[in-house]
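Board notes (copied after class):
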Amino acid sequence: MVILTRAADFSASLRICRPDLSAEENRARFGRLASQHGHNYRLEVSVRGEPDPVTGMVMDLKDLKAVIEREVMARFDHRDLNRDTPYFEKQPPTPERFALVLFELLRQALGPALHAVRLRQDDDLWVDVQSDAA
């Protein structure tokens, strides 16, 4: 079994807030994260499998790049996660929830080949989501 990882960088803005709370309650609960701010994210997408006997590849890198472009970059790059996407209308776009959304979108596109997603929000903060399949 070989695990192949491709990375992509993108930027997005957000507020960590709950729509059912007032502005004051959101500030009390989430502090400065309740204000609009942005991050330069690094997404690492790992697929697994045996190298093809003809190509020697687990997956064609241009195909993996195209999936990342379609499923992630087109939806989230330079977007406001709270306003421009439907994924965080009822929940705050925490790194954990954002990584889970990205994993699910990529799982639908890549199927069982998807092994893991790592979303780096900063140099010292990231979230890993892995497939349950062994």
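Comment from the instructor: The longest strand covers residues 2-14. Strands lie at 2-14, 37-49, 79-80, 114-122, 125-130.
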